[in-house]
């Protein structure tokens, strides 16, 4: 593990991200804090949706302190998802895809999810990156419908590679053109593909047009073009 990170290893916790949010509020660390657990009893994702794992899942969160006045780009979620995709691709042999805004899929379904939150406490800010990755082995229990998994990999090697990429980029050393090109090459959806849009107040089809410089997905409907912000509406493949 990189020496610049403090590590907290737990046997069981309701949520590593919730734990770290409380931890940074109380301790205000000046270096990044990594938290992992073997069992997570109440993990959550976008819009507080449950994140179901099995005994082989890799579950962790990272608290990344931010300097005063640090400006986060709207693309940061997509950027970190691309780093997650790169790291997993280096450790697994199967083809993996990026799904807006920050999920990883294989041909069978979702294998990894990520949720980014901020802690803002007076003059202190921290970035919380929560990640869950489904892995499988011969003894793995079944996953939820629509989920999939990647074959087991060495978790310590993954941590080293993933966090090295985060440190090198400092969460901001990337361009929209580079990120857009990488995303298009690995996107679960093709440009001009007909997709389903699902939200509490919306269920219709549209044409997927990719992502814009603000990290929003662009979808053309019958009589208008809309931009989607993270977590508001889900984009899904047509069955």
Structure report:
The chain is globular. Strands 1-2-3-7-6-5-4 form a seven-stranded mixed sheet, sandwiched between helices. 23% of the residues lie in helices and 36% in strands. The longest helix has 16 residues, at 76-91. Helix 2 (76-91) runs antiparallel to helix 3. It contains four helices and 14 strands. With 239 residues, it is of the alpha+beta class. The chain has two domains: 6-186, Bira Bifunctional Protein, Domain 2 (BirA Bifunctional Protein, domain 2); 194-237, Roll (SH3 type barrels). It has helices spanning 16-27, 76-91, 155-169, 176-186, and strands spanning 6-13, 33-40, 58-66, 97-99, 103-105, 110-121, 124-133, 135-136, 150-151, 194-199, 202-211, 217-220, 225-228, 234-237. A hairpin with a 5-residue loop joins strand 11 and strand 12.
Key features?
alpha+beta, 239 residues, 2 domains, five-stranded antiparallel beta sheet, seven-stranded mixed beta sheet, 14 strands, BirA Bifunctional Protein, domain 2, SH3 type barrels, 4 helices
């Amino acid at each position: 593990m990189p020496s610049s990170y403090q590590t907290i290893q737990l046997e069981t916790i309701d949520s590593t991200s919730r734990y770290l949010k409380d931890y940074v509020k109380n301790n205000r660390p000046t270096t990044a804090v990594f938290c992992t657990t073997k069992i997570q009893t109440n993990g959550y994702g976008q819009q507080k949706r449950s994140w179901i794992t099995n005994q082989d899942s890799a579950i962790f969160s990272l608290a990344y302190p931010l300097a005063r006045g640090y400006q986060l780009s709207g693309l940061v979620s997509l950027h970190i998802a691309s780093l997650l995709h790169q790291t997993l691709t280096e450790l697994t042999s199967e083809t993996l895809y990026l799904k807006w805004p920050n999920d990883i899929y294989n041909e069978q379904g979702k294998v990894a999810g990520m949720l980014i939150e901020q802690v803002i406490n007076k003059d202190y800010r921290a970035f919380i990156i929560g990640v869950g990755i489904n892995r499988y082995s011969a003894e793995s229990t079944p996953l939820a419908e629509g989920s999939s998994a990647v074959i087991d990999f060495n978790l310590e090697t993954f941590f080293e590679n993933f966090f090295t990429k985060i440190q090198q980029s400092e969460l901001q050393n990337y361009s929209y053109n580079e990120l857009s090109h990488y995303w298009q090459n690995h996107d679960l959806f093709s440009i001009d593909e007909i997709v389903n849009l699902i939200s509490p107040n919306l269920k219709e089809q549209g044409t997927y047009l990719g992502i814009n410089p603000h990290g929003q997905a662009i979808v053309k409907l019958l009589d208008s073009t809309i931009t989607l912000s993270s977590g508001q509406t889900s984009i899904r493949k047509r069955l």
